[in-house]
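Suppose you are handed a protein chain with no further information: no name, no annotation, nothing but its sequence. What can you learn? This example shows the usual starting point.
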Amino acid sequence: MRRKNRWTLASVLAIAGAVSMTGCQTQCGPQLGLLAYPIPVSPYFQDKHEDDYWVHERYERAPILGPIVDGAPPIAMDPPSDDEVMRQLEETHPVEGGIPLFYTVQRNNVSMTKELIADYIDPPRIYPLIGPAQLHHAHYKCTVYFTEVTRRGWPLPYTTVDEDAREVIYIDHDHLHMVGNVNEGLMTDVMAHAH
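A reasonable first move is to predict its three-dimensional structure. Written in structure tokens, the prediction is:
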């Protein structure tokens, strides 16, 4: 009888040891409940976050450039890029989305012109967290030429093509220039206007 109990105890310990070696445990670490299962997320949200970061990194920051040299013409920043113009156009006149087989709009054969319409500099003043600086304004008129194809699929399917579609977008590139070699007269004048 003792032999039978020992044999039973040895078999139970062997089975328990084998089960613990396989990784089949009922509890291992903290329990997450429903959070332990993967939740599907639409790629739309990832694209939106990446797009927002792209726009913030490239177009929503105001750079601070070096001081304007006496006697040299003040040079504005580069004109808007094609990407910036198309993003601005999509923001004001969106065509993304649509309903396939019911209503879609496409822009094909896109070309654009960029024209500097205003370029001027404000007098120096003191900006919080920056110090004395001048605000440089550069206003651009961007005309986008494209072929617009509109497809409607219901109730009667038809397609319209506008060969000479155009949109005008105005983009402002404002940036700051540091004020270099500030003398006493200019500094007191700036401080007097600030108060």
